[in-house]
Write a structure and sequence with these properties.
Structural class: mainly alpha
Mean pLDDT: 94
Order of helices and strands: HHHHHHHHEHHEH
Number of helices: 11
Low-confidence stretches: 1-5
Largest sheet: 2 strands, parallel
Length: about 200
């Protein structure tokens, strides 16, 4: 009983795995604006499709090592030899479509960055440049996708991106703080609400 009083209340999807707890407490839902970190998040969320997020978290270091720290400039230049190397790497998700899509999406990222100047501004435009603060009381209320994630998916697809459906896009939006989907009883919900300052 004493332990429950000491530990803060977290979102119900968090297990007692230390990796999950650290990710929830320090990363999930924190607004991210760096182009390359956003690309990294997008690729990892893409890898999650059909799998649990904890599987990706536990392999994250392997992904970073295998994919050159998820640097789009390097990934966009991957050749057949590198593709075969990735397909034979047991430390990552060896899914042909996901690997092909990662390489394709790196090229699309560079193209979009060149055309629009900022990958971050482009993505954040789907939420008008600021986090949406939701007020979900339970995990059951949290949607798997929203009209904004559908719009993001549709637009990314139009620009040539692959394997980024509305559900993956919404998981990405949650992870990078475009939406605050911590439930209201979670200690992080309030912490991640921007402080309004009088000017």
């Amino acid at each position: 009983m004493e332990k429950n009083n000491i530990n803060p209340v977290r979102c119900k999807w968090v297990s007692d795995d230390p990796i999950y707890i650290t990710y929830h407490d320090q990363e999930w839902g924190v607004p991210e604006y760096d182009d390359y970190k956003l690309f990294s998040h997008l690729i990892l969320d893409m890898q999650q499709a059909g799998l649990s997020w904890i599987t990706i978290l536990k392999k994250r270091d392997n992904f970073l090592k295998a994919y050159d720290d998820l640097n789009p400039n390097k990934i966009a230049r991957y050749d057949e030899k590198k593709f075969t190397e990735l397909m034979n790497n047991p430390g990552i998700i060896r899914n042909r479509l996901k690997i092909e899509s990662t390489i394709n999406n790196a090229k699309c990222f560079l193209d979009l960055q060149e055309k629009k100047g900022s990958f971050s501004k482009y993505l954040w435009s789907f939420v008008d440049g600021k986090p949406i603060i939701n007020q979900w009381k339970s995990l059951q209320e949290v949607p798997a996708q929203t009209p904004k994630s559908i719009a993001m998916s549709k637009d990314l697809k139009k620009m040539g991106f692959r394997f980024l459906g509305p559900t993956i896009c919404y998981a990405f939006m949650q992870a990078v703080g475009m939406v605050n989907d911590h439930t209201t009883d979670c200690f992080r919900h309030q912490q991640l609400i921007p402080i309004k300052r009088n000017k």
